[in-house]
Structure formats: structure tokens, C-alpha cells
Amino acid sequence: MQGSPRILVKGAGVAGMTAAVTLAERGGRVTLYDPGGRVGAGASWFAGGMLAPWCEAESAPAEVTAQSVDSVDWWAAHVPDVVRAGSLVLAPPRDVGEVARFGRRTSHFETVDGARIGALEPDLAGRFHKGLFFADEGHVDPRKALVALLDSLKSFGGQAVFTADQAPDPAEFDWVVDCTALNVRDKLEGLRGMRGEMLLLRCPDVTLHRPVRMLHPRIPIYIVPREGHVFMVGATMIESENAGGMTVRSITELLNAAWVLHPAFAEAEILEMGTGLRPSFPDNMPRVIQKGRTVYINGMYRHGFLLSPARAREAADIVFGANS
């Protein structure tokens, strides 16, 4: 390890954690720093954790799919409990035309009828008559995954600092990999915040085996199962930099979508509600930008868990390519 580069990774969200582990795997002496007090102190804590490259093709550039098809494999190799059960795309009867539109923009799916939907998700039997099943996708619990990555970093000899009064001095490192999102807006042109919203519900009367995307012409919504009959209900990104709490309208829309999926959600317990601002560039594509001995990984938009492995590899190639 004597000749290995000393690397400071700033930010312990999904971009920072994947970068820190990737750099440590390549032989870097990594120090992780986030004054938030823990991993995932920012927007990553409110992520859905969907590893859905084919579904994302509906609204994302082709590069997103091309660069993320191996993301499920990466997460499965690095954290426990990655679920590889695919994704299900549905729409209420009045919006069933949205299923065909979604299909025209995507690939690698099976068009499913009511019987097949019921076989995939028995609790949804008889409720929907047409959908799309993306068998090659998966999902992960973001909070458990981030903690597991921290454990992995430490197993490679890396260290983590979570208090501002012990902030490492960047001058003591060969490289700084900055993953601090909107905190570096003054250094990265065009960076803006995109609002995301989520609810955590507990509903013992519903079991789902995979994420379900409920299509709606205005605000598509996704429901992601977690352990213990807990479900994350979230909306796609909203073009707003409002970092305030959830509005009545937003909560109503998310709860209505869950109720449409299954009536038992009407009796679900609301465990948590949250909002977060995710960093985005004008084209909504995450970027790796080098400025001297600082490498920025930023603009993850809603692709944090999907694209962070690819961006971490790109950053590591810069660091180790320059030192080879």
C-alpha cells in the first residue's frame, strides 16, 4: 500500500459510497468524509433503490441504459439482499393506454395479461388486465445498502469521518473525489436541484415481490417493497428547488396511487414522509468532471443507484490512470 494514492472522498451518499468502495478495491487509501453524521444524510436516504435500466429508457437517454445494464450485478456483488425479481408496470383502467405508450419507448419486457399479473403478484390478482414485466431488473433497500458499503470500505482499510470538527485537510491527499451534490454549485456550471418526494408505509395485508410502477399521464408513481411489509411510495422527479416539506396535494396523490394498487393500503400506517433535492445537470445525465486533482461525481438526478457504479469506475480510471 506504500505507493497507493491517498484519496479523500467527500460525501457519503450513493455516489460517494460507490466511489469510495471502488477506489478502495483498486488499491486506494480512502478516507470518506461527510459532516452529516452518517452515510446517506442527503437525498440518497429517500431513494427508491430501483435497479431498472430498461424501465428508465422510457424517459432517459439511451446512454443511461447502456451504462447501467450491469448495475444489478454490481450491487448484488457488494451488498446483501439485492432482489432480482424484475419490475412490473401497470396503469389503472382509465389510463391503460399509458402501458402501450411506455412499451413503445422501452424494450426487454413481456406484455402481461391479468392472469400473468396475478401469477407474478397474487395480491394484485383480478385488479389489472394489462401491464409490462421487465424480468431482468431488480431493487435494493438504499439505507441498508449504504451501510453495507461503509462496512465494505472499512474492510479494505478505509476510514470514515462524520464530524465537521474533524474534517480532513484536502492538502494531505493526492486526490479529492467530490460527491457533495448541490454544495458545489459554484464550481459546476448548470447544476440544479430536482425535488423528490416519498412516503414509507407499513401494510401487513399486502405483499409485493418487486417494484410496481403505476402510470399516470401527469405524475407516474412507484411502489417499492421492503422488509416487514413496508413499502416506499415515491414520485418521479419534480422540476422544483423547493426543499420544504410535502404538500397535502403530494401526499394525497401518493396515497391515492397506493390505494388504487390495492385497497388495503387505505389502512396502512404512515411511517415516514420525506423530500430531497437531487443534483441534476441540464441534460439530466450524471457526470464525472476533473479539475486538477479534484474529480467531481455529480448530477445523479434520479439515477443514483442505477448509474453510480459506472460513474465510480470512471472516476477510478482517472485517479489510477494518472498514477499508473
General description of the model:
With 324 residues, the protein is an alpha/beta fold. The protein has helices at 14-25, 53-56, 62-66, 71-78, 97-104, 114-120, 142-155, 248-261, 304-322, and strands at residues 6-10, 29-33, 50-51, 87-90, 110-113, 130-134, 138-139, 159-161, 175-178, 192-202, 212-214, 221-226, 230-235, 269-280, 287-291, 294-298. Strands 5-6-4-11-12-13-10-14 form an eight-stranded mixed sheet. Strands 8-2-1-9-16-15 form a six-stranded mixed sheet, covered by helices on one side. The relative contact order is 0.21. The model has no long low-confidence stretch (mean pLDDT 94).
Which strand order does the major sheet show?
Answer: 5-6-4-11-12-13-10-14
Strand content: 25-35%
The rounded Rg comes to 20 Å
Instruction: Find the structural class using helix and strand composition.
Output: alpha/beta
The total count of strands amounts to: 16
Shape descriptor: elongated
Straight-line distance between termini: 14 Å
Kindly state the percentage of residues in helix. 25-40%
The residue ranges in which pLDDT falls below 50 over 5 or more consecutive positions are none
The helix count comes to: 9
> Order of helices and strands, N to C?
EHEEHHHEHEHEEHEEEEEEHEEEH
* Biggest sheet architecture: 8 strands, mixed
